[in-house]
Design a protein that fits this description.
5 strands, five-stranded parallel sheet, Rossmann fold, globular, alpha/beta
């Protein structure tokens, strides 16, 4: 995966989207942000997304519902959950796959970048 891989961020909290956008851009990634899972799905942004960061608890469609919907559509994107919920274990998707990782907020930025780099096959 190239250093310009597109990372899509879905979070209903604008401050989280802005902070993650800046963090990922500072590490050479191109970033797209979405305020909801519905916005992401309706935009077609999944077509060029190399990795997806999604909040779990959001209005309209949760991160786990998004994960299920992507699976139903046959869309395979590495998914990393970020959440303000305490001790949320990874949830398997239908078919046995699930999120790559779950990061509780606040999370260690270096660990998140290392996880993304690993998912995309970059050297950390």
């Amino acid at each position: 995966m190239s250093d310009t891989a597109i990372i899509s961020i879905i979070d209903d909290d604008e401050s989280v989207r802005v902070a993650l956008d800046g963090l990922l851009r500072s590490h050479g990634y191109r970033v797209r942000t979405y305020a909801s899972a519905i916005d992401f799905l309706s935009s077609g942004g999944f077509e060029n997304t190399a990795c997806l960061l999604s909040d779990i608890q959001m209005p309209e469609m949760t991160g786990t519902q998004l994960s299920d919907e992507l699976c139903l559509r046959g869309i395979e994107i590495p998914l990393i959950f970020i959440t303000g919920l305490p001790a949320v274990p990874p949830r398997a998707r239908p078919g046995g796959t699930g999120p790559v990782a779950v990061f509780p907020k606040p999370f260690n930025c270096a660990e998140l970048i290392a996880c993304i780099d690993s998912v995309l096959g970059r050297l950390a």
